[in-house]
UniProtKB/TrEMBL annotation:
SUPFAM superfamilies documented for this protein: Glycoside hydrolase/deacetylase
Protein name according to UniProt: Peptidoglycan/xylan/chitin deacetylase, PgdA/CDA1 family
Organism whose genome encodes this protein: Enterocloster clostridioformis
Protein origin, superkingdom: Bacteria
High-level lineage: Bacteria, Bacillati, Bacillota, Clostridia, Lachnospirales
Region (Disordered): 1-22, 68-131
UniProt feature, compositional bias: Basic residues: 1-17
GO molecular function: hydrolase activity, acting on carbon-nitrogen (but not peptide) bonds; metal ion binding
């Protein structure tokens, strides 16, 4: 093969390589342009879609969170009084039942570990057996509340943290009413203004209202002044609605090992049965945890934010009632057992 022929082949291969490189670059540029165009089109479509749905109140995207916050801010208005948390948003006041239908509570993660220690002390005067108003049905119907606990029969104290919350509390209260029972509700003070009617029914039903601080803060991690503020702000909020000032405290997360006992001037109520309902949200698992551990003098920890908790409660109450259990408040149980509840002391259950 001549030198000219070889040279021509080399030139031809070089030209072909350059042409392929040029075609590749052209294809890449076109692809990049196409991607950019598609991104712009999709972005515009999303803006149009979400913007349209926000106006219509039907957004399923990020804008729904904004709408939900605005709705919650309007719901927080009660009796035309604004609080610092509610800001300057005005809107119609809603009943507890309306709030229960359209709000999902922000989960306040409870203490994930239970402490099982000796029963020591806590007490307030047992609630009276007054008749009460049933706001759920919109009727002024009175229903009886059974009398004091019978110390000769087994009893158990169900306790509910983090409420009030209408849609769950109403089921719990209805179940208690059906079996002549009562329970203790440890209230988060910042929720009181949203669920005044629910709180009133808790009190009127003969159940007990306890203090679970105002913002569910770990009392071991804040100043002594703020510890006192968290407790007294909640007591003030409850008293303003019910006329009753809580006498029992449940510290958030069960955290009381260090500074808390010396700062809390109320009996502190723990538990010996932790249903872990906040974690499982499984009615069968919740019910099983109660039924497998229930004994005379037990204090059961539950949370009145989850429908599964209400379902489990509706399951276990008839079964425990068939075993002869009375469903009483914490204060009633300690009074019936002759164990005083003392300020600054911690209680887990009535000792066997």
């Amino acid at each position: 093969m001549s030198k000219d022929t070889k040279m021509k082949k080399r030139i031809s291969k070089t030209r072909q390589a350059k042409m392929r490189e040029k075609e590749l670059k052209s294809t890449l540029k076109f692809g990049v342009k196409l991607v950019l165009i598609l991104a712009v089109v999709i972005g515009c479509a999303q803006l149009f879609f979400y913007g349209k749905n926000v106006v219509a109140g039907r957004s399923n995207g990020p804008a729904v969170r904004i709408a939900a916050k605005n709705s919650e801010a309007r719901n927080n208005q009660s009796d035309s009084i604004k609080t610092g948390e509610q800001g300057n948003v005005l809107g119609p006041s809603l009943s507890d039942s309306e709030k229960g239908r359209q709000q999902t509570p922000e989960t306040i993660a409870p203490f994930a570990e239970s402490s099982d220690g000796p029963g020591n002390v806590v007490q307030a005067a047992p609630p009276s057996g007054d008749a009460s108003l049933d706001p759920a049905g919109g009727k002024n119907e009175l229903f009886p509340v059974s009398g004091p606990a019978d110390a000769s029969k087994p009893m158990i104290a169900f306790t509910f943290d983090d409420g009030p919350y209408y849609s769950v509390d109403i089921r719990i209260l209805d179940t208690l009413q059906a079996y002549g029972g009562r329970a203790t509700f440890f209230i988060v003070g910042s929720r009181v203004s949203d669920y005044k009617d629910t709180l009133k029914r808790i009190r009127d039903s003969g159940s007990e209202i306890g203090n679970h601080t105002f913002n569910h803060k770990n009392l071991e991690k804040i100043s002594p002044e703020e510890v006192a503020s968290q407790i007294e702000m909640t007591n003030d909020a409850v008293e303003a609605v019910t006329g009753f000032r809580p006498k029992l405290v449940r510290v958030p997360y069960g955290a009381f090992k260090s500074q808390v006992p010396g700062l809390v001037s109320y009996p502190m109520i723990q538990w010996n049965i932790d249903t872990q309902d906040w974690s499982s949200k499984d009615k069968d698992a919740i019910a099983a945890s109660v039924l497998s551990q229930a004994r005379d003098g037990s204090i059961v920890l539950m949370h009145d934010l989850y429908p599964a908790t209400a379902e489990a409660f509706e399951t276990v109450i008839p079964l425990l009632a068939a075993q002869g259990y009375q469903f009483v408040t914490v204060s009633e149980m300690y009074a019936a057992k002759g164990v005083p509840l003392e300020a600054g002391q911690v209680y887990f259950s009535i000792p066997k």
